[in-house]
Every structure is written in structure tokens, then in C-alpha cells.
Design goal:
about 180 residues; alpha+beta; six-stranded antiparallel β-sheet; 2 helices; 8 strands
């Protein structure tokens, strides 16, 4: 890994991944035997941080900054195995982005199906809970990094399409509470 002028080390995004496998116990499900969304989201958050722990030195505090749009495609049932894979997709001066993919493995039928995907942004903090610099940069000559950058541009364009103007509704005298 070559050093650049500003002493940031060039890294490949493909080298920073994480994987988590968790069985679905009945206590994690609702009355119909489907896993509750809160458990899936918590596991996605945990698995998403794994590439950051590989990337940073021990003692770094990693907190979730944003949980970008999550797409749920299928349900997960009791006694299935949840497989969560995460990979580094973007790297900035104080934060990084991770793509998280969730699959359900029904080992009884030997079938795996895609369940959910999301992008999470984590912020790196020091012991004083201030933003800490990340001494790395993605290797822009890596074809995988170029593909990730194109995907990030597409997501940004989609977010712009989805934003809606919220009308400003001023508070009038009728809206004010009356104190007696």
C-alpha cells in the first residue's frame, strides 16, 4: 500500500468486509413466527460496524451516523439462520459508509433468500467523543472502488428524486393554546 503526499494510506475497499451469522430463536419472533424488524435492524447495525473495526486501531469508537433506506424483500422465520454481510463502500475524513446485505438460510430446505439491504454511515470518535480523522483513503485506481463510486452517485441521484418539498404552514392565532 503506497503512501500519498498527505500521509494517508491507500486501501482497497474489498479488503474490509464483515460477516455475522445468527439463528432466529422463537423469543425473537412475533406470534406468527416471523422475526421482529427491531432484531434485524440491530443485527444490521452491528454487522455494519465490522469493517470499521478492521479498518481502525483498537480503542476507536464507532457510532452509527445514518441508516440509509432499508429495503425489506422477504420475511425471516423462526429457526432460520440470518446471514449478514457488510462491506466498506465509501471512506471520508471522519466517517465511512458500509453496504449491508441480509439473507435468510432455511437449512431444513437448503434454501437461501435475500431479505434486506441497506447503507449505513458510521462516524469515528476519539475518547473525548470528538470526530477523529481516518488515516486512510480508498485506492481510486482499484476497479472495485470505481464501481462503488458509480453506485454512490446513483444512490445520491435517487435520493434527490425522492425528496419532497414540505409546505410551510404558519402558526395562526387559532393554533395558539388558551391558558385560563
Amino acid at each position: 500500500m503506497a503512501k500519498t503526499k498527505n500521509t494517508t494510506q491507500q486501501i482497497r475497499a474489498a479488503d474490509y468486509t464483515g460477516e455475522l451469522k445468527v439463528p432466529v430463536y422463537p423469543r425473537m419472533t412475533d406470534n406468527q413466527g416471523r422475526i421482529k424488524a427491531e432484531h434485524v435492524l440491530k443485527l444490521m447495525d452491528i454487522a455494519g460496524g465490522l469493517p470499521g473495526f478492521k479498518l481502525l486501531a483498537p480503542g476507536a469508537l464507532i457510532v452509527t451516523g445514518t441508516f440509509d433506506r432499508t429495503n425489506f424483500k422477504n420475511q425471516i422465520w423462526a429457526w432460520e439462520i440470518i446471514e449478514i454481510q457488510s462491506r466498506l463502500t465509501q471512506l471520508w475524513s471522519h466517517s465511512f459508509e458500509v453496504q449491508v446485505c441480509v439473507r435468510a438460510n432455511d437449512f431444513r430446505k437448503a434454501k437461501t433468500r435475500e431479505v434486506a439491504t441497506a447503507y449505513l454511515v458510521y462516524v469515528v470518535l476519539d475518547e473525548n467523543r470528538q470526530a477523529r480523522d481516518i488515516p486512510y483513503a480508498l485506492d481510486l485506481t482499484d476497479p472495485n472502488t470505481q464501481q462503488l463510486a458509480m453506485a454512490a452517485d446513483l444512490r445520491k441521484a435517487n435520493r434527490k428524486k425522492e425528496t419532497r418539498e414540505i409546505p410551510f404552514i404558519p402558526i395562526t392565532e387559532e393554533d395558539q393554546p388558551v391558558i385560563v
